Recover the amino acids of this structure.
């Protein structure tokens, strides 16, 4: 580590925690050769950033072992959202030598008065699981904090720890910002390679597999013996609802698992999750049904068997999960894949080949996230205030804001001081105050509110589920509880619960003996198939078409392939399949680019828009990773659209803009942006009545900005994020380029095909219309209750 | 405008989210939330200062076109505590001296009485009876025998469904068996879906038209 920044890339269980801790301690010994064993109260020497609080304890004990081993008298403390205010005050009075914390808590330190003094002795910052942080706005938070710390702590060394991803160099660049350009850094990569075996669980008859669905419960009986024969098993599901359902079904199928099986997902209360993590670690538990909430902390809790229910959607995620079994160096990691519908077998085959060829995904770092910057500037204004020129230089030194212009910067400063356009003479906007080039928040009320609302993880408006007798179980979304009456039973966190009453934002429950009850689901984005995987998916499709596949999954799929051939067609490399058919629901037009759901969402809106320019028509749009559907109540002029060059890349940007404005993708993106930038008031704990007069929704802000302030950078950010992360314009262009080279194969099946079925039954839909509102209303009906 | 009969009286539903009661020459408006943008800005939330401007344009247009004798605000006229936007309301009332401006207060109307007097606004109690109507801000659970409740507060909208899994959500006028709810007049106020039962009448507002749906 001597004098350098850098990044350590190593697989699980290779002792990377010590690899970075020991040099920090050794340096201190070198600098204090005489009295290093006794010296206490040395000030904060190192910060260890971890993305999840649960890992903090493990880091703390590892650090303590290292300190004891070397005979130092250092203190290691944790600071996270769970840390009590008395403990925080103690850390402030007498800083520990090593602080284990999260990006959010680090920003809270930057929001406290006199922070530069607290960091005065800081020499190193270690960022654990940087690959995880980088793909989120928490990574941006980290970049900003580092830009400040590097200036107030000259000589600071920054080290990241990252799992293997497709763009390690870019990850390092994002971490180091302009320090990357100086070339004074090291990238340490280990060459250990793990062997992974993917085993698909197949039904005895492939016909038993449904054409659509996402639960996979049909294969339950095949899973039970695997769980029973293994010492410890992790069962990964893709959604929290699926997690709840699998847990319940497994218990029913194997009652002997009661008490030794647990559940883990993001809506379950932190203490319950901590308990599960510890119990798993201590091998008290035989099985845990979980979601990606257990993806992190890979190092610490090895298990014997891994089962993946449904497609993991990405190669890296699958490898990471598989890596949790077979922890001994050189051991084989085995992962069972449980398809939830027939076509997912194709994904299993694609995954296997992608793993063999080590095609790991890249994590795309966020750039120009103005929402996080607005929050950060207010954070600095809340603590000691800031000089804008100094902070401008620092902000520009980060990867995220490297391209920010002076004009944009001025806009941001105006936004936090004047609230954007303030034309009216008697405007009373108040947030950050300016004196020359110095910016500061003087209102205590605004400062407190800001500290309470900081962070970049935006949660749904959730209700807390608690026992009447006390004890938090977790959080649940309001719309789910709204369907229930007191006395109704529902399942949550693997318990049967009776709703007693609602009290503000709290749902009070008691245990129930009833076996049946509704199972909650949580809204949340569905992951798209990564572009690495879609490439292999197209390869496997070719093998399926030609009947050349050797893999067991492809052989199992043959009866379904046969049916698809009979009803319609399986496209070859040089063909683009479109199916058009009528059902009771209307006219279905289904396209199959095999590009992943995000790209399909974009292409779906684009094609719908272009067709809607030919005739007044309304579409609802559904998609999955294989294709997308345009559904209309009237005939769709597809032949005419094809003649008019539906797939053209000409005017692509313009057409995408026109289609997304209508498809409302940007509005969804804006939800997080508004929250992070502090536009949405969540109320104080113990709130006053008047606070309610400041409540609003991100949707209202989106509408007023669109109408009255279209240049607003936060609004533009929403549109940019749609283009980068959602529509992936580059991938769309590539896809259109590929389609243009292909021969269109327009097929008219008499009814739904195996390929189209999973798409047309999807209820999650986008919309696009070119009909007049009045005309649409005439064709519609009111929804009545009872 | 869309004419309807309610308890043998004639009402016109206006696409500007207003109702005109012909027999009483009364314009009914609910939930204007004037001063909301200014209130947010004072609290440090950067709503564009111009966000409420369309309220004044629509209100003036209605007053010029319809020339009512009375204007009755069904609550939530002003969004919160005093801010200078209140004076704009006073100016408007001054401009239409021949019209009587009256308020049945809602939960947001928290100003002290002198403000209403200064603005030239007549303040009713929480409920106002003009048989056969019972005019309030909050929808009433108990409605006096023989009266029909007209109210606001909800900011009602409905969801319409069409073929091919299409749906639309639009603000509306709602008339149930004993209760009618006005759409919110104010810009930047949002809507909430309401439950509609068989027999209820619903009129959605589609850009510049009021359309009955069933």
């Amino acid at each position: 580590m001597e004098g350098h920044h850098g990044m350590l890339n190593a697989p699980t269980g290779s002792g990377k925690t010590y690899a970075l801790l020991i040099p920090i301690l050794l340096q201190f010994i070198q600098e204090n050769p005489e009295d290093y064993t006794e010296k206490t109260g040395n000030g904060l020497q190192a910060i260890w950033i971890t993305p999840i609080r649960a890992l903090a304890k493990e880091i703390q004990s590892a650090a303590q072992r290292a300190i004891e081993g070397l005979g130092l008298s250092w203190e290691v403390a944790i600071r996270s959202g769970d840390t009590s205010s008395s403990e925080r005050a103690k850390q402030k009075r007498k800083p520990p030598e090593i602080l284990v914390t999260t990006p959010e808590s680090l920003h809270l330190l930057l929001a406290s008065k006199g922070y530069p003094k607290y960091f005065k002795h800081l020499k190193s910052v270690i960022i654990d699981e940087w690959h995880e942080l980088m793909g989120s706005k928490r990574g941006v938070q980290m970049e900003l904090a580092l830009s400040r710390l590097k200036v107030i702590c000259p000589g600071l060394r920054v080290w990241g720890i990252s799992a293997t991803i497709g763009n390690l160099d870019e990850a390092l660049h994002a971490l180091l910002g302009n320090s990357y350009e100086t070339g004074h850094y090291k990238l340490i990569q280990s060459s250990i390679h793990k062997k992974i075996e993917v085993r698909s669980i197949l039904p005895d008859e492939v016909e038993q597999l449904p054409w659509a669905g996402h639960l996979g419960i049909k294969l339950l009986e095949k899973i039970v013996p695997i769980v029973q024969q293994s010492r410890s098993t992790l069962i990964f599901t893709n959604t929290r609802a699926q997690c709840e359902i699998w847990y319940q079904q497994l218990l029913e199928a194997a009652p002997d698992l009661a008490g030794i099986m647990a559940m883990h997902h993001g809506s379950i209360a932190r203490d319950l999750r901590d308990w599960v993590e510890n119990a798993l670690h201590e091998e008290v538990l035989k099985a845990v049904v979980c979601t990606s909430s257990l993806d992190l902390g890979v190092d610490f809790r090895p298990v014997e068997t891994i089962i993946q229910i449904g497609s993991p959607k990405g190669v890296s995620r699958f490898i990471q999960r598989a890596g949790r079994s077979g922890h001994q160096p050189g051991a084989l990691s085995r992962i069972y894949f449980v398809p939830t519908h027939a076509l997912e077998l194709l994904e299993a085959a694609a995954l296997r080949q992608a793993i063999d060829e080590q095609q790991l995904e890249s994590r795309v770092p966020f750039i120009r996230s103005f929402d996080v910057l607005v929050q950060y500037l207010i954070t600095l204004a809340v603590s000691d205030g800031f000089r804008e020129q100094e902070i401008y230089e620092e902000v520009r030194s980060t990867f995220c804001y490297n391209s920010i212009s002076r004009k944009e910067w001025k806009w941001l400063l105006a936004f936090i001081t004047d609230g954007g356009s303030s034309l009216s003479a008697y405007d009373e906007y108040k947030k950050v105050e300016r004196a020359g080039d110095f910016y500061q928040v003087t209102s205590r009320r605004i400062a407190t509110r800001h500290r309470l609302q900081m962070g970049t993880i935006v949660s749904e408006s959730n209700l807390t589920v608690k026992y009447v007798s006390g004890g938090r179980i977790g959080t649940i979304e309001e719309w789910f509880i709204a369907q229930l009456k007191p006395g109704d039973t529902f399942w949550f966190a693997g318990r049967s619960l009776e709703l007693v009453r609602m009290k503000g934002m709290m749902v009070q429950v008691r245990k129930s003996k009833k076996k049946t009850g509704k199972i909650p689901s949580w809204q949340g984005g569905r992951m798209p198939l990564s572009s690495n995987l879609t490439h292999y998916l197209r390869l496997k499709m070719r093998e399926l078409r030609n009947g050349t596949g050797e893999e067991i999954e492809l052989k199992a799929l043959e009866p379904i392939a046969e049916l698809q051939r009979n009803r319609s067609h399986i496209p070859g490399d040089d063909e683009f399949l479109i199916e058009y058919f009528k059902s009771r629901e209307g006219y279905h037009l289904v396209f199959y680019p095999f590009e992943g759901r995000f790209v399909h969402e974009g292409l779906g809106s684009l094609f719908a828009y272009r067709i809607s320019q030919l005739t007044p028509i309304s579409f609802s749009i559904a998609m999955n990773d294989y294709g997308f559907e345009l559904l209309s109540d009237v005939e769709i002029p597809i032949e005419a659209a094809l003649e008019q060059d539906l797939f053209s890349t000409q005017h692509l940007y313009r057409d995408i803009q026109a289609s997304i404005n209508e498809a409302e993708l940007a509005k969804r993106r804006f939800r997080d942006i508004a929250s992070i930038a502090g536009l949405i008031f969540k109320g104080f704990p113990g709130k006053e009545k008047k606070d309610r007069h400041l409540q609003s929704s991100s949707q209202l802000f989106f509408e007023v900005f669109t109408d009255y302030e279209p240049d607003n950078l936060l609004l533009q950010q929403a549109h940019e994020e749609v283009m980068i992360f959602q529509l992936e314009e580059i991938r769309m262009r590539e896809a259109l380029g590929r389609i243009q080279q292909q021969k269109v194969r327009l097929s008219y099946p008499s009814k739904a095909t195996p390929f189209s079925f999973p798409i047309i039954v999807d209820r999650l839909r986008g919309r696009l219309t070119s009909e007049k509102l009045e005309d649409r209303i005439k064709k519609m009906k009111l929804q009545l209750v009872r | 405008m869309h004419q309807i009969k309610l308890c043998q009286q004639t009402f016109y539903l206006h696409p500007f989210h207003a109702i005109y009661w012909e027999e009483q020459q009364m314009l009914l408006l609910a939930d204007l939330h004037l001063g909301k943008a200014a209130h947010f800005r004072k609290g440090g939330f950067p709503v564009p200062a111009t966000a409420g401007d369309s309220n004044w344009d629509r209100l003036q247009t209605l007053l010029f076109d319809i020339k009512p004798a009375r204007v009755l605000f069904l609550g939530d006229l002003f969004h919160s505590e005093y801010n200078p936007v209140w004076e704009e309301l006073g100016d408007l009332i001054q401009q239409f001296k021949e019209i009587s401006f009256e308020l049945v207060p809602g939960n947001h109307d928290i100003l002290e009485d002198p403000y209403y007097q200064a603005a030239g606004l007549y303040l009713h109690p929480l409920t106002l009876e003009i048989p056969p109507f019972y005019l309030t801000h909050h929808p009433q659970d108990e409605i006096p025998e023989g009266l029909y409740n007209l109210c606001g507060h909800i900011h009602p909208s409905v969801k319409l469904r069409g073929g091919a899994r299409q749906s639309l959500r639009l603000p509306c006028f709602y008339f149930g068996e004993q209760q009618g709810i006005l759409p919110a007049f104010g810009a930047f106020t949002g809507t909430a879906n309401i439950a509609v039962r068989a027999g209820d009448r619903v009129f959605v507002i589609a850009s510049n038209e009021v359309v009955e749906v069933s």
Observations:
- Chain A touches chain B through 57 residues (CB under 8 Å).
- The domain at 370-453 of chain A is CATH 1.10.10 (Arc Repressor Mutant, subunit A).
- The mean pLDDT of chain A is 88.
